[in-house]
Amino acid sequence: xxxxxxxxxxxxxxxxxxxxxxxxxxxxxxxxxxxxxxxxxxxxxxxxxxxxxxxxxxxxxxxxxxxxxxxxxxxxxxxxxxxxxxxxxxxxxxxxxxxxxxxxxxxxxxxxxxxxxxxxxxxxxxxxxxxxxxxxxxxxxxxxxxxxxxxxxxxxxxxxxxxxxxxxxxxxxxxxxxxxxxxxxxxxxxxxxxxxxxxxxxxxxxxxxxxxxxxxxxxxxxxxxxxxxxxxxxxxxxxxxxxxxxxxxxxxxxxxxxxxxxxxxxxxxxxxxxxxxxxxxxxxxxxxxxxxxxxxxxxxxxxxxxxxxxxxxxxxxxxxxxxxxxxxxxxxxxxxxxxxxxxxx
Length: 345
Ligand SMILES: Nc1nc2c(ncn2[C@@H]2O[C@H](COP(=O)(O)OP(=O)(O)OP(=O)(O)O)[C@@H](O)[C@H]2O)c(=O)[nH]1
Ligand SMILES: [Mg+2]
Hints:
The chain is of the alpha/beta class. It is built from 15 helices and 14 strands.
């Protein structure tokens, strides 16, 4: 999964990127990529039981798309837009702190609305061009109907993610990357004063806004500092601030929820590992994440819950207690299922 961090110049994108993906490596042309592990205490608990050689957490890739804008209009540059189109999720960093390099005073609500309008407009340009071409060709059919529907919504200022398009409708859009259709996380990047400001209270709580949009707040500069500390100092620092955990944990969980991702777990003496899948994935398909041979030669899945393992101590004991469930290929895998696959090749 690739998360594109975007926003207006000087809004704190690179700061937030470094806070979310500490120690990330920079890529070409000022674009930075970084992977972060999805914190998962279940993996830690499994590792205590199995003492594996390796612990593997699920990972999310972050991309700092940069803030270059076009000198003529102030709109995002073509290159920035291209990076945004390639992302699976957009994170919009809205500035809520005084930046001495910028004349404009901070106004995160204004930036949120501007950003929404700008990506709507970028989508509208694509949809209009398609519509005009098809009109000339006198094209008819489902894709034309969908195109007209999207155009009407965008003209009314409605982002496409709010339309709840059916799978059939979405299928007519494969091959074009519409920005307002992508899941969006708005991050209000507040100063420490802003964090304490009652006028911004409504921005501070993490809010789910419809199926694939959410907003949350953090102090980019503080989070970056926290991320640079080693684990021990981090805990101390957080305690000093009265915080339980760094905001990146909340962020990753929120992103996971937004994408409707869950994790199933595998455990053994070699590795304990979390595997991200979309909610609703069936056992046979999920097996393909681990190895394509397991998907092909799938016989069954042996599934148990971590709580049962903790109660009974070992897989063998849990099995005799009847807590190991045998599931077929159509079984819908649940978040936190610990799975052993039986397969032949
Ligand atoms: N006070 C405060 N300053 C911040 C915060 N986040 C970023 N800054 C400062 O704002 C300036 C710009 O931050 P960057 O992270 O470079 O912003 P950017 O969006 O990546 O900038 P461009 O890539 O040039 O568009 C830097 O001097 C940061 O130290 C914050 O949460 N609070
Ligand atoms: Mg930057």
